[in-house]
Amino acid sequence: MTAMNDQFYRMKRMPPYVIAEVNAMRHAARLAGQDIIDLGMGNPDQPPPQHVIDKLCEVAAKPDAHGYSQSKGIPGLRRAQAGYYARRFGVELDAETEVVVTMGSKEGLSSLATAIIAPGDVVLAPNPSYPIHTFGFIIAGATIRSVPVTPDEEYWASLERAMSFTVPRPSVLVVSYPSNPTSEIVDLAFYERLVAWAKENQVWVVSDLAYSELYFDGKPTPSIMQVPGAKDVAIEFTSMSKTYSMAGWRMGFAVGNKQLIAALTRVKSYLDYGAFTPIQAAACAALNGPQDIIDTNRELYHKRRDVMVEAFGRAGWDIPPPPASMFAWAPLPPALRSMGSLEFSKQLLTQAQVAVAPGVGYGENGEGYVRIAMVENEQRLRQAARNIRRYLQSVGVNSSAA
Q1: Which of 219, 368, 242, 216 is nearest to 304 (CA)?
Q2: Considering the domain 9-38+293-394, what is its CATH architecture?
Q3: Using one digit for the tens of pLDDT, what is the confidence trace for 284-339?
Q4: pTM higher than 0.90 for the full model?
Q5: Which of 163, 206, 266, 307 has its CA 20 to 30 A from that of 299?
Q6: DSSP string over 192-259
Q7: How many CA atoms lie within 13 A of 175 on its CB side?
Q8: In this predicted model, what pLDDT tens digit does every residue of 128-172 receive, in sequence order?
Q9: According to the CATH classification, is domain 50-288 in 3.40.640.10?
């Protein structure tokens, strides 16, 4: 019998997930009993509000709550998300045709890619970017053309080059602000220009707004849906993971263009039966109930940002303060730049017991940076700074020279 071909098409198209390499080292170090300060994964360390947990338990106790749910989300949850957009952005959504519940943003983005991508389609995606923004479309058969993250004139010039010289012409553009990993933000004028550009070039816009509530300059993050006519060309994903500290619950949403929402909803109807109904009911309680946690979380990450920037700076590593998100996008200390982000991340883990995510894991343009997640308390962040200071001194970088 001849050996079966184990070179599966989609596996061959996926580059190595380098962040997993550091994650494996972190796991091994912890198994060996080391106290690792984990600033690598964006995993919120706070619990959801108590009334949300109570609602989960209440509904889970009902005998009829354990059957199949609705793939596109229970009606009350879709209405609750429409209510959030009305309150927060002044945007009216039809809960029946313009909202679908997803199992977190990652599932939603990958299901959308499955729904709308044909093999060989070209997708414009930021580089660096959160991996699903590229991998989700690569798995579906697309070719990725990179565009910058920074929303300056070079960004628009790169879009024009892409439309002029790419065959076939790109059909989808992915945007994500506040950006993961770079934490960059945009204003409403950017989205206004983007919607006009998308209409002119007949390109779908996929917006990921997972960090909508984590902004630190007092100016709320806008949604592309605030632009008149955005629903003609755009779909937007949001998540309850960071806003309500519900990362493991896998609750997200897509809203916007009816054609895209219908395609996503149809694909999901083949792939899943929706999230566990008690989780959806608890998500309703989060969206419709007291919103104190949003301000509390924003203040928490703002304080951690300030502590981290100050403490790491004194340790010899200057980090630009992020304007939003739960991440800092940190350039490697100049004296260690030639080391590269993956090796630097490994050394921080083994020599300083601090885990960060190598920038190259977010795309080749992430080289020279690491992503630092502000998911440990202020005391642990200061401990991380002390460990890093010792490491930098051991390799000849002192706090006055860095």
Answers
A1: 216
A2: Alpha-Beta Complex (3.90)
A3: 999 999 999 999 999 999 999 999 999 999 999 999 999 999 999 999 999 999 99
A4: yes
A5: 206
A6: HHHHHHHHHHT-EEEEE-TTTT-BSSSSPPP-GGGSTTGGGTEEEEEESTTTTT-GGG--EEEEE-HH
A7: 28
A8: 999 999 999 999 999 999 999 999 999 999 999 999 999 999 999
A9: yes
